[in-house]
Automatic annotation (TrEMBL):
<feature type="binding site">
    <location>
        <begin position="228"/>
        <end position="229"/>
    </location>
    <ligand>
        <name>L-ornithine</name>
    </ligand>
</feature>
<feature type="binding site">
    <location>
        <position position="101"/>
    </location>
    <ligand>
        <name>carbamoyl phosphate</name>
    </ligand>
</feature>
<feature type="domain" description="Aspartate/ornithine carbamoyltransferase carbamoyl-P binding">
    <location>
        <begin position="3"/>
        <end position="141"/>
    </location>
</feature>
<dbReference type="InterPro" id="IPR002292">
    <property type="entry name" value="Orn/put_carbamltrans"/>
</dbReference>
<feature type="binding site">
    <location>
        <begin position="267"/>
        <end position="268"/>
    </location>
    <ligand>
        <name>carbamoyl phosphate</name>
    </ligand>
</feature>
<comment type="similarity">
    <text>Belongs to the aspartate/ornithine carbamoyltransferase superfamily. OTCase family.</text>
</comment>
<feature type="binding site">
    <location>
        <begin position="128"/>
        <end position="131"/>
    </location>
    <ligand>
        <name>carbamoyl phosphate</name>
    </ligand>
</feature>
<dbReference type="InterPro" id="IPR024904">
    <property type="entry name" value="OTCase_ArgI"/>
</dbReference>
<protein>
    <recommendedName>
        <fullName>Ornithine carbamoyltransferase</fullName>
        <ecNumber>2.1.3.3</ecNumber>
    </recommendedName>
</protein>
<dbReference type="InterPro" id="IPR006130">
    <property type="entry name" value="Asp/Orn_carbamoylTrfase"/>
</dbReference>
<comment type="pathway">
    <text>Amino-acid biosynthesis; L-arginine biosynthesis; L-arginine from L-ornithine and carbamoyl phosphate: step 1/3.</text>
</comment>
<feature type="binding site">
    <location>
        <position position="224"/>
    </location>
    <ligand>
        <name>L-ornithine</name>
    </ligand>
</feature>
<feature type="binding site">
    <location>
        <position position="160"/>
    </location>
    <ligand>
        <name>L-ornithine</name>
    </ligand>
</feature>
<keyword id="KW-0808">Transferase</keyword>
<feature type="binding site">
    <location>
        <position position="77"/>
    </location>
    <ligand>
        <name>carbamoyl phosphate</name>
    </ligand>
</feature>
<dbReference type="Pfam" id="PF02729">
    <property type="entry name" value="OTCace_N"/>
</dbReference>
<dbReference type="InterPro" id="IPR036901">
    <property type="entry name" value="Asp/Orn_carbamoylTrfase_sf"/>
</dbReference>
């Protein structure tokens, strides 16, 4: 059966732990697995801007013995010039896997129905599951574990990062808190699914409109841009002085309410002075550069798992 990674809970808790363990192994021995030897092509398609995702997937695919073929989705015009199903039936037979950054989650689900090879979500409007694998790897390296730790995400509670933290960190047995304005709550279905996972894994999920309560005593504090790709026309309302997100900015003061040894994560790109103060992201608690590098190791492990299985 072809396995895909379209959202965080496409891996079971056991499989997520296996991928994270494999990421640690591959970080120590970068060329120890070669499932793409040939080289076999992996198509990496971008309908939205990218930096970290393009570089880290190219590096991961190369190190696994393969050829990363970066495709400009805007040139291909997937879904307008030709249907997603037809694109999938062209890419599938010529690719060992397809990695796609696109808009609606329905688009990547349709791609996965027709490729016949693993499809990996490299960010959609709803989820960014590869980033969460990198974040969990970073937490594991800095804290020695994930289960039982509290992660506080403050900012836009309705975006892809919020949804993926809810699902992915619940799978990892964490206590997940989302601090967000009442009008920017996560999708109810995602929240319900995260609660179900947390109950099974010994963690918990909480959403609050009080940023101090979200961060209180947390082991990991994270945020994300208030203006996700595709929402550029809302920039004034979301980043201006009257933005509902202003109380959720990660300032030194907010960070002081977390555990004394808390770490700070941000998927990047970051806007200093908006969602995070420079003193925090450039300060001693920030591990964002480890986090960015860990995209490489986590995605290498994920591709290896999807192509080679658990062994
Ligand atoms: N929420 C952000 C994540 C960027 C990696 C966006 O979708 O633009």
């Amino acid at each position: 059966m072809t396995r895909h990674f379209l959202r965080d809970d496409d891996l079971s808790a056991e499989e997520q732990a296996l991928v994270l363990q494999r990421a640690l192994e591959l970080k120590a021995a970068p060329y120890s697995r070669r499932p793409l030897e040939g080289p076999r092509t992996v198509s990496v398609v971008f309908d939205k801007p990218t930096l970290r995702t393009q570089v880290s997937f190219a590096g991961a695919i190369s190190a696994l013995g393969g050829l990363p073929l970066v495709v400009d989705g805007n040139l291909a015009q997937i879904g307008t010039r030709e249907s997603i199903a037809d694109v999938a039936r062209v890419l599938g037979p010529q690719s060992a896997a397809v990695v796609w950054r696109t808009h609606g989650q329905d688009r990547i689900e349709e791609m996965a129905r027709y490729t016949g090879v693993p499809v990996v979500n490299a960010l959609t409007d709803d989820f960014h599951p590869c980033q969460i694998l990198a974040d969990l790897l970073t937490v594991t390296e800095h804290k020695g574990r994930t289960a039982g730790l509290t992660l506080a995400y403050v900012g836009d509670g309705a975006n892809n990062m919020a949804h993926s933290y809810l699902l992915g960190c619940a799978l990892a047995g964490m206590h997940v808190r989302v601090g967000t304005p009442a009008a920017h709550q996560p999708q109810p279905a995602v929240l319900a699914r995260a609660q179900e996972i947390a109950a099974a894994q010994g963690g918990s999920v909480q959403v609050t409109d009080d940023p101090q309560a979200a961060v209180a005593g947390a082991d990991v504090v994270v945020t994300d841009t208030w203006v996700s790709m595709g929402r550029e026309q809302e920039k004034g309302a979301r980043q201006g002085a009257a933005s509902p997100f202003v109380p959720f900015a990660v300032t030194e003061e907010l960070m002081a309410g977390a555990a004394v040894d808390a770490i700070f994560l941000h998927c990047l790109p970051a806007y200093r002075g908006t969602e995070v103060e420079a003193a925090v992201i450039d300060g001693p608690q920030s591990v964002v550069w480890d986090e960015a590098e860990n995209r490489l190791h986590a995605q290498k492990a994920l591709l290896s798992f999807l192509l080679e299985g658990p062994a």
